[in-house]
Task: structure prediction
Amino acid sequence: MVLYLGDDEIRRLLGWDPLIAAMEDALAAFSAGRVIQPVRDMLTIEEGRRYLGVMPAVTENAMGAKLVSFYPGNAGSGVASHHAMILLFRTDSGEPLAVMDGGLITERRTAAVSAAATRHLARPDARVLALFGSGVQAEAHLHALRRVRDFAEIRVWSRTAAHARRFAERHGIAAMAAEDAARNADVVVTATSAVEPILRGAWLKSGVHVNAVGSPRPGWRELDDAAMANALVVDSRAAVMQESGDVILSKAKISAELGEIFAGTASVPAGMTTVFKSVGLAVEDIAAARLVYDLAMAR
Result:
């Protein structure tokens, strides 16, 4: 029987700590060449408004694919910009195991990867977190990053000030202007669909760590050239060179893949300002789906 798991059941099963650990393992395997995965095939339906992504991957213990729709044109409509479904198969026989809603998995695995990056790259005494964006990814990052650092102050900025205020009131944090949010922050998250840079390197203090997870198109940017000129870590060299405007347009030098950091085959000197540019990988979705499936079967 093929198991179906919806977001409500996935939310009950998928805890942050095991997911963060699973993302570290998955990305270490990816960077070591133990994962079969092409760069995501993103079909453009309507430029700037409607896209469909196809994301297959095979790991040592999981095989599957995610279909994800990315509709930035939904902004302000009350309909989410991302919708996804994941199919999971056995690797030995090829038999289907499960079909899952992919929305919550996408949301949480993205934040879990950033949390793992923050654990390895941010200062151990990081106390100030700045969130650029006030959507589902900002909220997921708020929860995930609290698992790896003890923040005394959290700030949020959004292009729509009313959204930032509502987000701040809901979570008991401070809404402020972009530059004010970034100044003296220890960790910064950019989770937007910006086309032009919304975070400037001149605002960043030395030693800050930035998780840049938004604007996943080759012509879109969240960070300016000055921000991208710091130690750059990516989830996939091949993927960012096709999908990330921040990397492509800045011509920034890539220091390492995140999986290499996790495996100890690469490092960034302590105290450096670091930028982790994430475009999101199929291996993350499939590893998260396998974790959810195993937890469901154990129950």
